Here is the input.
Amino acid sequence: MKKLSILLMTLGFVLFLAACGSADSGETGESGETAESGAANGESESSETVTISHELGETEVVKNPQNVVVFDYGILDTLDELGIDVTGVVQSSTVPSYLEEYAGEDYENIGSLKEPDFEKIAEINPDVIIISARQASLYDQLSEIAPTIHLAVDEQRYMESFKENMQTVGEIFGKEAEIEEALAEIDEKIESLQEATADMDEKALIVLANDDRISAYGSSSRFGIIHDELGVPEADENIEASTHGMNVSFEYVMEQDPDILYVIDRAGVVGGETTAEELVENELTENTTAYQNDNIIYLNPEYWYLSGGGLQSVMQMVEDIEASIE
Here is the structure.
């Protein structure tokens, strides 16, 4: 009996020591979480960050952010290509059809390109907000909600700024290798196209069709990549560089007499009553070399107007011009 009592006392002492050891290894903080549970939940204080310099300032962003809000369709195009999840996107404006999954219920609607839903964005509690030119004036307001970075393509140096944006995305999301591979493919395609346009005699004019009117774009403009980067000669070298283009008439188009007429149908993606074909192919343009040689090229407005500056869209843009001069 005495031996049994000693055995029970020894066993109880061992269990007491084990309990103390367990309590010490699971110390709780003020929040009541143990050290292990805090690490498992990925507390931000142990997360790596990167400082991003952009047109509107410098922003510290956590690497591999989980809750991502995106206003720019070009950046959304890129994240989609890289397989990176996003939380909130612009659904109150036209979403490109090849990105139509982001218009579904699996993603939060953060408003329109010019009118963000600040309440919804705050509710999402994003780790990062990515904006472009249309939201630049709202940068301070959005920055109060979460770290905000401005990634817009500079029309004066299209490819250079595009690559900078892509490298920034790669740095934030740990996709540097994938970005470099994709950019190398685009560069190879551009170099091949530049060789084809180096001795090109035909000259091109770019117009944006918007329901009942047109505007022309030249070098250093929104669609100037055709001339500046891809080497297609301009029919008119004196087009005023402007985001919204230079307002022109069809008499102007006839006078310029382009060999190639590139048309981007804005009304076709934002809603309009007149198609680009109905507007552009009229009695005046019938007198142009482009019309007579069946060289009026309708560029896909989803890539050219809605989501330019993305990995998928820029590759498609280069391929469009390549196909137009074959």
Observations:
- The chain has 14 helices and twelve strands.
